[in-house]
Every structure is written in structure tokens, then in C-alpha cells.
Amino acid sequence: MTESRAVARTARGALLEGSGWQATALPRGRSPLALAWRQLRKHRVALVGGGILIVLYVLAIFADFVAPYSLDWTDRARFYHPPVLPRIVDAQGHISLRPFVYETTLVDASLRIFKTDTTQKHYLKMFVRGEPYRLFWLFPTNVHLFGVDPPGRVFLMGTDQFGRDLFSRILFGARVSLIIGILVVAITIPIGMVYGGISGYFGGRIDNIMMRLVEVIIAFPGFYLLLTLSAVLPSSLGCTTRFYMIVVILSFIGWAGFSRLIRGFTLSLREREFVLAAKAMGLDDLRIILRHILPNTSSLAIVVATLAIPGAILGESGLSFVGFGVREPCASWGNLLTAGTNLVNLAQSPWLLFPGLFIILAVVAFNFLGDGLRDAFDPRLRTG
């Protein structure tokens, strides 16, 4: 009887140790997350990437408020208008304490030449009233962060072929391009963790069958599979439905590679003492996988998720760029770039490439943050 109790105590101790709940395993205030955060703060590039992402997501969430114009706002008289930046020095060299823009008029539509009228100033104002919208889709208002009184116009990044403000559409497009990455990861990570955990835990024939299915999915070229699946979508689908279908398609091809990583980790974890102790205590296999094995792969999941979001952003942008993703009148960074495919338009209106710069900025920022998280969760790189 005494021996059985000793075995049970040993099993519980091993189980607690493997689950990360043993009080003596780490000093006070030094949980694994605390150690990872301490290491991440030393990674300046990762902090820069995280800061950029915070700014991008805040702009996307508050796009209706920050953007001076709505998604569908159009000024037909100012198509392909070059960027207009607020200035504080006028044509006569006088300094103004209030930023302003000059009035412009189209003088040659074929050459896209605009004339600046230096006699008419339109002063930039904060919290101006403009087109109505619903903040957070709930609260009706018409207050925008900045703007000028009509007939003045402020185009920070120019306009497109329909006279729509490119800066405003980039902010609205960020909602699609940035949120789609999070949704894809929210689907692929749980599926990959459970699938890989089951495969690695049971091994044998179950592992062979499950991994062959994964290899079949991975064998298909990713982007061409995306094109094929997207091409079968009815062209009559609305923007919202097409958005969610793209999320499903990107998730379908994204979970397989991650499940192989989890499977490899599970193969090593299933021989650890805390797993053997859980089996000795009579816990069922599913409980062992979900409660004791998969939590020990969470650091890997966090890193992979951060590095997988850029892939989803590029996947959506690529599909929208070639016309199989989000389509007009909805905006995403990918379909905003399609106006720049015409070399004539690009030569005369290089500002049409601004959406591409936002794609690059977001992808690089996610990779910076992912590299920092990978180092932060690596115990071999922790110092102090």
C-alpha cells in the first residue's frame, strides 16, 4: 500500500513537471512567459516589427475615422491625381502655422496634368465633419480625423483611375489583408496541433495514414492550388462570402505543414516521464494529448502562427491581384495593386504602387516579430 502511494506521488510529480505547474521548477516571477517576454524586450528589431503591426491594425480598425473619405467616395474630375501633401510654406515663401493644400484643376486629361492654383488655400482641419459612417459598425457619426473643407481635396497618396482616394482605400483594404491572416491562423493552428498531436502520439499505422494525407496536400504547388480552388467560386459571390471562402481555401492548404512540426514534437514528448506518468494514472489518450502534450508545443505554435500570417497576407494579395480573390468594389491591398499592372499607368502614376509598400511593410514586420518570438522561446538563447 505504501509503495503504491509512493508510485502515485512520483507520477503526479512528473505530470505536474511536464505540464509546467511545478512550483519549484522556476524562480518566483520567472514563468516561461515572463522569461520569453524578458528575452523579447532585448530584441529591438522584433519590438520595431511589433510596433509597426500595432499601428497598422489600429489604422485598419479605425479606418472609417482616420480615412478622410469613404471607401466608395469618387471625384471624377480628379482621376489619377498625384499625391497632395499638406504644406506650411506657401508659394511666396511665407510660413503658415496651419498646414494647407492648394486648389488643383485638371487641364489635360490625356496627359493627366493638373494645375495648382496658389491663390486658393484650403487649410487642414482636425476632427472635421464629412461623409457619415458607423464607428465599429454600431455608432453613427460623420467626424473624421482630418480633412479640408470642400471644394478642397487632400490626397495623401493620390487617386486611382476612378478618382478615389488611394490612402482611404488602403486603410479599408488593410481590414481585409490583415484580418485574413489572423483568421487563417486561427483555423490552421488548432487543426494542425490536434492532427499532428494525434498522429505523433499513436504512431504506427495511424501515423502512417495521417502523414500520407498530409504529404498529398503538401505535394500540390500552393499558389496553383489556390488559383484552382478560387477559380471554381461563382463570380456572383458577394464580397463578404468571397472573403470567407478565401479564408477557408488558405486554411485548407496551410494546416498540413504545421501538423508535421507538431507530430515531430509529439514523437519526442510521448516518451517523457510526465506522459508515461499520465498513462500510469489511467488518463485516457485524448486527455493526455489535449491537456499534457499539446500545451508543451504552445511556444512553437506561437512562433509558427506569427510567421504564417505573412504567408496568408501574400496568398490573399496574390489571389486578389490576379482577379480570383477580393474584387471591386471591395478593397484589399492585392486588388488595389491591379491598377499598377498597366505600364503606361505606372509610368504616369507611380503612386499606384503604394499598396505594395504596405504589403511589404506588414510582411517584414511580421517576420521581424516572428524572429524575435522564436529567439525568446528558445531556452538556449535565454540569458540572465
In short:
This protein is an alpha+beta fold and 384 residues long. The chain has helices spanning 2-18, 32-41, 44-61, 63-66, 166-202, 204-219, 222-231, 239-269, 273-280, 285-293, 298-321, 333-336, 343-348, 354-376, and strands at 87-89, 95-108, 113-123, 125-135, 139-147. It has two domains: 33-61 and 168-381, MetI-like fold, CATH 1.10.3720.10; 80-158, no CATH class.
What is the average per-residue confidence, as pLDDT, rounded to a whole number? 84
Q: What order do the strands of the largest sheet run in, or round the barrel if closed?
A: 1-2-3
Q: Which structural category do the helix and sheet elements fall into? A: alpha+beta
Strand content: 5-15%
The CATH class of the largest domain is Mainly Alpha
Report, as a whole number of angstroms, the end-to-end distance: 45 Å
Overall tally of structural domains: 2
- CATH fold annotation of the largest domain: MetI-like fold
Order of helices and strands: HHHHEEEEEHHHHHHHHHH
Under CATH, the homologous superfamily of the largest domain reads: MetI-like
> Count of helices?
14
Helical proportion, percent range: 55-70%
CATH architecture of the largest domain: Orthogonal Bundle
Largest sheet: 3 strands, antiparallel
How many E-type strands? 5
